[in-house]
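To assess whether the prediction recovers the assembly geometry, we first specified each molecular entity separately, as shown.
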Amino acid sequence: MPPVLRKAVLYLCLVAAAIIFVLPLWWAILSSFRPNDAIFRDLFPFTPRALWPEPFTLDAYVAIFERGFGAIIANTLLVAALTTALGLVVNALAGFAFALFDFPGKSTVLGIVVVSFMLPFEAIAMPLYTVVSQLGWIDHVAALVVPSVANGLAVFLFYQFFQQVPKDYSEAARLEGAGWLRILWSVYVPLSLPTCISAGLMLFIFQWEAFLWPLLAMPAQQFKVIQVGMAAFQDQYTTAWNQLFGAAVITALIPMLLLIPLQRYYVQGLAGSGIKG
Amino acid sequence: MSSLELRGLRKHFGPVEIISGVELKIAEGELVVFVGPSGCGKSTLLRLIAGLETVSAGEVLIGGRDVTKVDPAKRGVAMVFQSYALFPHMTVRQNMGFGMRVNRVPKAEAAVKIEQAAALLQLTPLLERKPAQLSGGQRQRVAIGRALVRQPDVFLFDEPLSNLDAELRVQMRTELLALHARLGATMIYVTHDQIEAMTLADRIVVLRAGRVEQIGAPLELYDDPDNLFVAGFLGSPRMNFLPAEVQPDGRLRPDGMSVDLPSPVDGLEPGCRVVVGCRPENVELTDTGAIQASIKSVEQLGNATFVHADCGAGLAVAAELRQRWSLSGQTTLRFNLPIAQTQVFDADTGLRIRK
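The predicted structure of the complete assembly is given in tokenized form:
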């Protein structure tokens, strides 16, 4: 086979593979711009019109926001932002302590931290519910934020990075009169911006994707977050498919808008930690 | 500036003793160099003085004040690290002013101190640059500047020139000497480089395995070492050592040779084992020399020539000549060790015999 032809076949295969992967996403996006009764119309039997938003309408998005999805997005942003901000402080402090200080039982505690991020959330959901319930936090924002603040993977990311920072920096700062918190804030944090961004995005996305815990911790459903809110588009007898797809598009779009400009740091932070994302 | 005193200073890491009872007094304004091979404890000793390591036993006194348990920042010391330890995200100005920001020195006062130090170290045009934009020598100067603005009682330097190339090291040595002369500050300088030690120090402290082997002025240690270690450590090529036995007539017979050398010390007991030491520059090459050796190599440095030879029985001897010298087919040479320039050490204890 001539090289040009071989290359053409290769590219054809790649394009076909790309279409297979992108198609569901594309179909979800364009379905959000169709009336609900037109979504499956061109699929069975399939016609190319299924891949084009025709008839085009923004009704789904109007309906989503009329049903209060804007408040749900705001709720989730609040919870995710609070978790990220508090989480960065707590996990950076923990990582700093593990990296710089020697104390009895350090390796055991670090081992528990590492194991904690390998546990599926379902395994701790019920004990966590009991604790939160005892604290009287059920149906309170604190129930969503506080348990997610300490994150084993984020602690480990910070620990890994801080351990690689030469000790000369902290010693030079100590000789200049800086206390440990000052050393963390003025020396270690500015050096670990990629790690901070990685850990921050990770905490944000964990919270953004949370479904089971918000469902358990907020039974009154007065304060809904995005994944729980999306589930409401589907009830026992009917499904507002176009609204569901519209909500899914918005849900995917917000973290993507955050992730894309910071992607370089995110990948750098995870790669630097020796952990694959 | 202040004096510094170490009293019975000890440091253990677990069961291993790194510093074994160091006693030392450093006068105000003195530049003292700690020198010794890798792992001898010189950097640990400096870190004990700085307070970056806790003392296992003994005391550290700065300006007569016991600072053994005082926080590093409150000891009145400033340290220049081997790695420079400049904060990479800060400019030169921010690096130099970090300590003053931490200690809430008024901004105007801090700015004046930074400008003064920068002018002294020729850093003024570089104040807004970050460390990555500086050469090795410039980084070194910033590290010194950061120490300088603190106006410490004692400056501590931990192998500060070891990351620089040979030419820059010579230049920085000169600058450090000029700085010391100008400030008149008490300085302690750690190095494994004997040339740095010889050229910088008012006094040298030679360390081995956590113990002080000898303290003294550079030439005093070079000319009059107390033991084999100091004699061998200072000088390049190192002092020649010939194991020998004291003969009944008091002369010394090097092992594997059939000639006796006159002894520079009287009263040595016949049969006693000694080591004869003679520096390469004192070896006298002459056709009528008492000792014969086969030539192994000749190093021409331009201003000097080093001849390395083997006297048999594995005894290597180096000779330094001030004139050019070529082998021209010669495979052996003869030499004498002038009695006035030889030293005798006890073969068992390694201590100098000065009787």
